[in-house]
Amino acid sequence: MRFGPRQNPWTSRRVGHATIWLHILSMDEVFKALAGPSRRRLLDELHSNNGQTLGELCRHLDMSRQAVTKHLRLLERANLVVILWRGREKLHYLNPVPLNQVTERWIDKHQRRIPLALSELERGLEKTQPRE
Predict the structure, then answer these.
(1) Is pLDDT of 1 > 50?
(2) Domain map of the chain by residue range?
């Protein structure tokens, strides 16, 4: 598939000896990546110890190397994991930006409204309950 100058969903940024490809995504891809418990475990592992090789990740998880690779590929497409090369080593890093965008877009917005939503729910329940 060819993209014109305005349609290319990929941008790159040079950081030291590595080029990081940043993919501009819809939130659907992030939610799809977060939907799998194995992928969430991978993200948790990277959160506790960022910058791991594939072998290091496999040691901490009860999955085959191929399964971890498959899940990492999906996490990379969702921009939740970024790969940096250190010599011949391929290191995987957690990218918190998409998670922050989800938090700002969905969680913070709804969390601010919780007290109002609870009082509206209470009033609605009071109207539907039969009076004795």
Answers:
(1) no
(2) 10-95, 96-132
